[in-house]
Recover the amino acids of this structure.
C-alpha cells in the first residue's frame, strides 16, 4: 500500500512522513500571504491539523501538496480576516543606504505608509490575491488552484483589488 | 491602460510592503504538531458531553431509576 493510502486510513506514521515532506512548502506559501513568520508557523500546524482530521476525505488519486495548499490558503484567509496586523514598512528605523541609494525623504515614507495602510484595509480575499499576484508575482494558475477558483476569477479579484486600492489611495491623498 | 495601471500599482506595492527576507522554515514543526494531536485526543468529543447531559436530565426527570441503576452496577 502506498503512503497516501496509509494516510487516508489515518496512519500516524504516514502522516508524519507527509508532514516532514510538505511542512516547508506549506509554511512558505502561508508566509507569502500573511507575511509574518510567527503566524505562518502557527498556521502551518493548524493546516496540518485540519489535513489530519480530514484524512478520510482525501482523494488518494490526487496530489497531497495541492490539497494541503488549498487548506492552507483558506486558513491564511481566515487569519487575514481575523487580524488587522500593522504592516511594517521597509526602512522604518534608521535608513540604510544599502545600494548607495539616497535616504528616504519623509514624503516617500508617508506615501509608502499610506499604500501599506490602504493595502491592509482591502478585503481578505482581495488582499490575498493582490499579495500573490502583484507582490509575489505568482502565476495566475497557481493562485487559482490554491484558492479553488478559476483563473478568470483570480484576474477579476486582482482587478477589483487594484481599483479599490486606487480609490483608497486617492482618499488618503496619494495619486498613484 | 488597465495593464499600465496594474504595473504602476505593482511597483508601488512592492516598494511599500516589506519584502520577505527569509522564506525557509527554520525549525521542524513536527513536535508542535504532535502536541496538538495529543491535546486534541485528550479532549472528549462533543457528543460525549451531550450523552452525559442526557443522562443527567433523565435522572432529574425520573429520580426513581437511580436506585435501580445503582443496584445493577
Amino acid at each position: 500500500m502506498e503512503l497516501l493510502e496509509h494516510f487516508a486510513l489515518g496512519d500516524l506514521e504516514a502522516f508524519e512522513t507527509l508532514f516532514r515532506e510538505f511542512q516547508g512548502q506549506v509554511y512558505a506559501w502561508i508566509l507569502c500571504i500573511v507575511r509574518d513568520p510567527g503566524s505562518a508557523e502557527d498556521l502551518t500546524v493548524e493546516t496540518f491539523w485540519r489535513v489530519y482530521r480530514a484524512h478520510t476525505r482525501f482523494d488518494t488519486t490526487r496530489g497531497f501538496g495541492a490539497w494541503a495548499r488549498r487548506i492552507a490558503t483558506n486558513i491564511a484567509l481566515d487569519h487575514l480576516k481575523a487580524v488587522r496586523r500593522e504592516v511594517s514598512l521597509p526602512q522604518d528605523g534608521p535608513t540604510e543606504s544599502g545600494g548607495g541609494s539616497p535616504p528616504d525623504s519623509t514624503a516617500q515614507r508617508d506615501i509608502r505608509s499610506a499604500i501599506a495602510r490602504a493595502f491592509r484595509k482591502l478585503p481578505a480575499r482581495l488582499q490575498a490575491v493582490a499579495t500573490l499576484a502583484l507582490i509575489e508575482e505568482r502565476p495566475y494558475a497557481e493562485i487559482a488552484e490554491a484558492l479553488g477558483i478559476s483563473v478568470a476569477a483570480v484576474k477579476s479579484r486582482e482587478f477589483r483589488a487594484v481599483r479599490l486600492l486606487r480609490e483608497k489611495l486617492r482618499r488618503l491623498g496619494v495619486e498613484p | 491602460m488597465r495593464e499600465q495601471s496594474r504595473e504602476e500599482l505593482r511597483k508601488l506595492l512592492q516598494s511599500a510592503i516589506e519584502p520577505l527576507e527569509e522564506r525557509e522554515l527554520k525549525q521542524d514543526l513536527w513536535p508542535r504538531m504532535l502536541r496538538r494531536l495529543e491535546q486534541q485526543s485528550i479532549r472528549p468529543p462533543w457528543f460525549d458531553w451531550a450523552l452525559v447531559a442526557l443522562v443527567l436530565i433523565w435522572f432529574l426527570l425520573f429520580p426513581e431509576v437511580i436506585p435501580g441503576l445503582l443496584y445493577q452496577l
Observations:
- Residues 45-73 of chain B form one domain.
